[in-house]
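Example S7 (structure tokens).
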């Protein structure tokens, strides 16, 4: 309904000039609508502090079968915390600025000269490559895309986290950990010193320690999800949201 009834101009509505659709992504060789996914994020112009738990759905122009469009036009966020439970927030992107959507980011991953050969290699010899959700995370005035890559060997029912892909509108990087991928993305080495313990709230972390803490929270959340420990998964997501909010405040 939102794909059509967001239009408020009668003439635009009548000629169906601005119809949207749910963004699409490739799954197992087929394109399908993106399934809504949960993230802890700092909702622009709304959230204060450590961020909040939201269900996110990206939207693109409808286009036509002959001329599909995959650029982001908006994303819908459903709030889940406290008194705001069930509230829907719609964020629109300027029409005069091309903001890449999931299909376009996936295409860049497939065409990347460093990543594509590895995906082909890992998909041979009885192994299967699985791509996790391509998460869209607003950071300041930019968007960061994060996608975990898993490999499942023949005879092993438990996929193994193999790489993490991080992308922006301009750059893309893949490494064994989130910290390493972020280092490649920004072109600066990020170390992994031990951050202050959680018992010291309010102590700001420098970017190197903050990136390392984000990477640990990300890996811990993925590990909890693989074992089905959703309570622990939620705790790690909450910590990840707090760290991302702190990263936004640094504005590196």
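Recovered sequence:
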């Amino acid at each position: 309904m939102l794909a059509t009834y967001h239009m408020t101009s009668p003439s635009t509505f009548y000629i169906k000039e601005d119809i949207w659709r749910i963004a699409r992504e490739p799954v197992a060789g087929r394109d399908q609508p993106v399934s809504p996914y949960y993230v802890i994020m700092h909702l622009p112009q709304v959230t204060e502090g450590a961020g909040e738990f939201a269900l996110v759905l990206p939207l693109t122009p409808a286009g036509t079968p002959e001329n599909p469009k995959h650029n982001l036009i908006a994303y819908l966020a459903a709030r889940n915390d406290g008194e705001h439970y069930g509230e829907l927030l719609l964020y629109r992107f300027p029409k005069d600025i091309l903001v890449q959507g999931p299909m376009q980011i996936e295409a860049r991953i497939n065409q990347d000269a460093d990543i594509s050969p590895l995906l082909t290699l890992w998909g041979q010899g009885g192994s299967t490559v699985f791509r996790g959700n391509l998460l869209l995370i607003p950071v300041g005035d930019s968007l960061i895309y994060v996608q975990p890559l898993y490999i499942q060997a023949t005879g092993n029912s438990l996929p193994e986290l193999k790489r993490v892909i991080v992308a922006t509108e301009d750059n893309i990087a893949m490494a064994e950990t989130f910290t390493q991928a972020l280092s490649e993305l920004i072109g600066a080495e990020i170390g992994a010193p031990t951050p202050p313990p959680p018992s010291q709230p309010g102590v700001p972390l420098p970017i190197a320690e903050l990136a390392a803490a984000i990477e640990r929270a990300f890996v811990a959340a993925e590990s909890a999800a693989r074992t089905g420990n959703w309570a622990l998964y939620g705790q790690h997501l909450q910590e990840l949201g707090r760290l991302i909010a702190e990263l936004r405040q640094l504005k590196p």
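Notes on this example. The longest helix spans residues 230-250.
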